[in-house]
Amino acid sequence: xxxxxxxxxxxxxxxxxxxxxxxxxxxxxxxxxxxxxxxxxxxxxxxxxxxxxxxxxxxxxxxxxxxxxxxxxxxxxxxxxxxxxxxxxxxxxxxxxxxxxxxxxxxxxxxxxxxxxxxxxxxxxxxxxxxxxxxxxxxxxxxxxxxxxxxxxxxxxxxxxxxxxxxxxxxxxxxxxxxxxxxxxxxxxxxxxxxxxxxxxxxxxxxxxxxxxxxxxxxxxxxxxxxxxxxxxxxxxxxxxxxxxxxxxxxxxxxxxxxxxxxxxxxxxxxxxxxxxxxxxxxxxxxxxxxxxxxxxxxxxxxxxxxxxxxxxxxxxxxxxxxxxxxxxxxxxxxxxxxxx
Amino acid sequence: xxxxxxxxxxxxxxxxxxxxxxxxxxxxxxxxxxxxxxxxxxxxxxxxxxxxxxxxxxxxxxxxxxxxxxxxxxxxxxxxxxxxxxxxxxxxxxxxxxxxxxxxxxxxxxxxxxxxxxxxxxxxxxxxxxxxxxxxxxxxxxxxxxxxxxxxxxxxxxxxxxxxxxxxxxxxxxxxxxxxxxxxxxxxxxxxxxxxxxxxxxxxxxxxxxxxxxxxxxxxxxxxxxxxxxxxxxxxxxxxxxxxxxxxxxxxxxxxxxxxxxxxxxxxxxxxxxxxxxxxxxxxxxxxxxxxxxxxxxxxxxxxxxxxx
Lengths: 341, 309
What we know:
The complex is a heterodimer.
Chain A: H1 2-11, H2 44-72, H3 81-113, E1 121-126, E2 132-137, H4 140-153, E3 156-164, E4 170-178, E5 183-187, H5 201-220, H6 243-257, H7 274-290, H8 293-302, H9 304-312, H10 314-328, H11 334-340
Antiparallel strand pairs in A: 1-2, 3-4, 4-5
Helix pairs in contact in A: 2-3, 7-8, 7-10, 8-10, 9-10
Chain B: H1 3-11, E1 19-21, H2 30-35, H3 41-47, H4 51-57, H5 71-84, H6 86-92, E2 93-94, E3 105-106, H7 109-123, H8 126-131, E4 136-145, E5 148-158, E6 161-168, H9 173-182, H10 185-204, H11 208-218, H12 222-230, E7 235-242, E8 249-252, H13 256-280
Parallel strand pairs in B: 2-3, 6-7
Antiparallel strand pairs in B: 1-4, 4-5, 5-6, 7-8
Helix pairs in contact in B: 3-4, 3-10, 3-13, 5-6, 5-7, 10-12, 10-13
C-alpha cells in the first residue's frame, strides 16, 4: 500500500500538495470523540501536534461527560475528584508513552538518513614524540549543517544550556525536543576553561562551550566520522581502548611468545580406536564409582554412545554390561544398609 | 549447590555431566552435543519467543525432525571445519590429492577448491593465522546457571577467551546487526564467557594429579590448561566471513550495551526454562491459550494517512 502511495506521488511530481483541512468528523452518541482521518497531506510534526491536541481533548470531553452524568444523577461531582484524578494521570501516562514512542521512531528515521559527516577542518599539532602531525575533523558547524535539516524534517528541535560545577568546570546541556511532546537531555563532560593558545577568559569560555556543544550533539545523535579533536592533545595515554584492540594485542603478544605456533596434537589412537575407547571406558567407570547410586543412571545415559561402542567391541562388551549393571542396581533399602553396617 | 537447586537439577532431563570436553580422545560429535538436552544459546533465543518454540526445536520433542542442512549450511559447516580443525576435516572427507578412505565422504574438486579459497582468505593473512593458533577447536563446556544445566560449544578456545566463526551473506553493519538479533549472538557472547569463567573455576578445584589425569583423558596439553585456568583476561571475538567469493572477513566485538542485553536475555531464558519445566514438564506443551487477551493500541502500528487519494 505504501509503495503504491509513493508511486502515486511520484507520478504527479508537478502537482502542488492540496492541503484540505476539514473539521474532524465525530461519531455521535459516544462518550469519546472518534476522529475520522482527514485527507490532508500534513507534515509529520504538524500531524503529531494535531494528534496530541486531539489526545488532550479526549480526556476533557470524557471528564465533561462524566461530570454531566453525575450531575444528572444528583451526585456531587467533587466527591469523584479522586476518580477523575486517576483518569487524568492515566491519560497523561498514555500520552507520555505515546510521545516517547514517537521520539524513538523519529530518531530512528533520522539515523537512517544521517550521512557520514564530512571532515572539512584540519588541525596541526606536535605529538608527544615531538613529531608534527595533521588531523582532519568536523567542527560543530559541519555537524549541525547536516543535522539540522534532518532534525526539522523529523520534528526535532535542539536547545543548548550550560551547567557549572564546584570546580568552575562547565558542561553543555543539549535538550532535544520532539514534536510529539517528548524531550531528552544530553550532557557533555564537565570541562575546564580552554585557555590554550592566546585566548583570554571570554574567548576561553566561548571555546569551552563550543567543545561542549559539539560533544553533546555528537553523543545525542550518535554521529560517526567526526573524530574527537582534542586540539593537539592527541596521543596522550595511547594504547588499546576497545575490547577488540585488547584481543588483538593478546593474539599478537602470544604469537610473539611462541615462535612457531603449533596446533597441539591429539594422541594418535591405534587402529580401530581401541585406546580411545579404553580411556573413555575408564573415565566413565570413574564417574560412576564417584557418583551416588541415584545419579548413575543419568550419567550412563549421558555416555550411552560410549556404552554402545563398547558393546560392539567384544573386548569391552563385558565391561559395558558391568557398567550398565552398576548404573541400574537399585539402591539398598535403609534397613539392609544398616544391617550390613 | 543447595538442596533445592539439586532437586531442580534432578527434574531436568539427563545429559552429559558438568565439565569440559575437548572432542579429542573422547569424541563428542556435533550431533551428540546438539542432542544433549542442556540449554544452549540457540535454545535461549527460542525461549525468548515462547516455551513451545523452544520445546519443538529441542531434544525434548520426540518427533523433532532431524535437521536437513541446506547446501549453503553444509558449505558453512565444512569451511568452518577446514579452517578450525583441518585434521578432522581430512578424516571426514576425501579430497583431491589425498589417499581416499572408504568411510569418508567424497568432495568434488570444485567444492574443495571453494572451501580452500574460503580458508585461505583467512589463513593467508598473518592476523588470521595468529588468531587460529595456540588454542583448541570445538571445545564443549557443560555447566549450570542457577541450577539449570546449560551447554556451550566454543569454535576456538584461546587461553584468554573465545573466537566464534560465523558465515554470513554480507559483512556490513546492518547484516551483522541483524544476525546478532536473529541468532542471539549477544546471548551467545555472554553465555560463552560465563562458561569460560565457570571452566576456570572448575579446573582450579582440581588437584595437580586430577588435572594431569584430565589433560590425559582429553588429550590436551597440561601447560595450556594451566595457562587457560590462570589467565586473567576474558575476551570474545566474532570472525564474520562472507559466504561468497572473495570470502572477505571481519573481526567484530559487541558493544557493552549489546552484551548487557544478552546477559538479561540469558537470565530471563533460564527463568523461563525453569518455569516451563514446572508448568509443562518434559512433555508436549499446549500450543493454544487458556484465556482471552485483548489487543492493545500500543501493539498496533500507526496507520499512515500521509498520501493523496
